[in-house]
Input
Amino acid sequence: MTDTHDLQRFVQAQEDDYAQALAEIRSGRKRSHWMWYIFPQLAGLGFSALSQRYAIRSLAEAEAYLSHPVLGPRLRACAEAVIGVEGRSAREIFGSPDDLKLRSCATLFARVSPAGSVFHRVLTRYFQGEGDPQTLRLLGLAPSGDG
Output
């Protein structure tokens, strides 16, 4: 299988941190640094070296990520774990600005998932069902009259 999107960069980054990230999410509080490659967001939102390295560059890459035999199940498991946290806001779980990165990630992957997906449920549960405006704008999906 050809890795046209270099998804292996995520697999390698998650190798040492995935179990820790999932445990932190389930505990209700992110404590270490893994947001970029556990909940990736669309290119153009972050400007640090890490955010650029782990940015998703297109909807096709997002679809490939979800279809990947390791990355897709891991992303869904982490998103389900977020939904499983009771009584805490996204900001309380992730801190700022990582709560915004969660929203961006969920917005991106909701666009390439069927209605009612875990990503739609993250948006509903933590962001009143509203996608991230910057992500939508970069995808060319911002509502007209948005100001």
Observations:
- Residues 8-136 form a domain with the Serine Threonine Protein Phosphatase 5, Tetratricopeptide repeat fold (CATH 1.25.40.380).
- The longest helix spans residues 71-84.
- The chain has one domain: 8-136.
